[in-house]
Design goal:
The chain is of the alpha+beta class and 152 residues long. The protein is built from three helices and seven strands. The protein has one domain (7-140): Nucleoside Triphosphate Pyrophosphohydrolase (Alpha-Beta Complex). The strands form two sheets. Strands 4-1-6-5 form a four-stranded mixed beta sheet, sandwiched between helices. Strands 3-2-7 form a three-stranded antiparallel beta sheet. Strand 2 and strand 3 (32-33) form a beta hairpin.
Length: 152
């Protein structure tokens, strides 16, 4: 079994008026989140973000505005998901990105990962996600003007 690397990306997909794309997890119905995923061996963080966006939503990041917020969160991996990592790995470092799209778009879900999606105003999205780091990133959108620090 190939273990996941304990480094991941969180990509907050949003519109200029700060509507946020949320995905409902297939393995935990009722758990909503932004696009997330672990880094693959040899991938840059930006490459991870682009790959996860394509895999989870069908969106091509090159067509939109992908921004690396240069923000990291370190958190304890939920016990139910630790078996995906090498023995003894208990924490993950998450790197935050944002993808600005012109409007709420139809996305293509991978049914094994997500059940459905919604576009919500940022306040509702922040209240709905299960992850504190995801909620925090969404709450930062207005301060960032819907933009991030710099392009990757």
């Amino acid at each position: 079994m190939a273990y996941k690397i304990p480094v991941s990306v969180l990509v907050v997909v949003h519109t200029p008026d700060l509507r946020v794309l949320l995905l409902e997890r297939a393995d935990r119905p009722g758990f909503w989140q932004s696009v997330t995923g672990s880094q693959n061996e040899g991938e840059s963080l930006a490459e991870t973000a682009v790959r996860e966006l394509r895999e989870e939503t069908g969106l091509d990041a090159a067509q939109f505005e992908l921004t690396d917020w240069r923000k990291q969160n370190r958190y304890e991996i939920y016990r139910r998901w630790r078996s995906r990592y090498a023995p003894g790995v208990t924490h993950n470092t998450e790197h935050v990105f944002a993808l600005r799209v012109p409007q709420g778009l139809a996305v293509t879900l991978q049914r094994k990962e997500h059940l459905r999606y919604e576009w919500l105003p940022w306040q509702e999205a922040a209240a709905k996600v299960f992850s504190w780091s995801n909620a925090e990133a969404i709450r930062e959108l207005p301060q960032r003007g819907g933009r991030g620090a710099e392009k990757p």
